[in-house]
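Take a record.
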Amino acid sequence: MDEEFRSLVDRLEPEAAGAPLYGRLVATEDAEELARVLTEPRQPLWARETAAFRLGCAGDRRAFEPLVLLLNHRDAERCVSAAHALVRLGDPRTPRAAAALATNSLRTAYALHPVRLLAALRAPESAPALIATLQRLLAPGEPHWRVALACVEGLGHLADDRARAVLTAALAHPRLGGAAAEALGRLPGE
């Protein structure tokens, strides 16, 4: 059992409250049993999350949609687990989905993990989505500075020269300036 799976198991065990299904989902190697949990009605969220995580980490694309929904959940720990499984899943739809979540101005409060996922994926969609999100978050009075910081750090990780202008603009932001300077230092030609 890897560290991320152990973390998921420890987090969801109290939520499952001793349900027999919990033990089966943690122990089974049967992908069909896990997939049924994703499609059967009235399954608890902890069961769907466990099944989606296990299927995603195994590369089973039936987990894609439930994992994207979990990536956009209000509970940060669910988002972390979903992002981990999405990276392992390797589905080509993941970058587009993460970019849509990161750039959705109505869901900015929940965009931290999609932003971090985009940086980890290093996909063609990553830099444009992070640039667009950061540009929007540099507006005066914007409260989501942690998401903006994740964009700055992600753009530094990607080292994409298209980010130069927005990173330069971020230098003036008191909470982003240091990270923006570091990210600019990673760009080609610096």
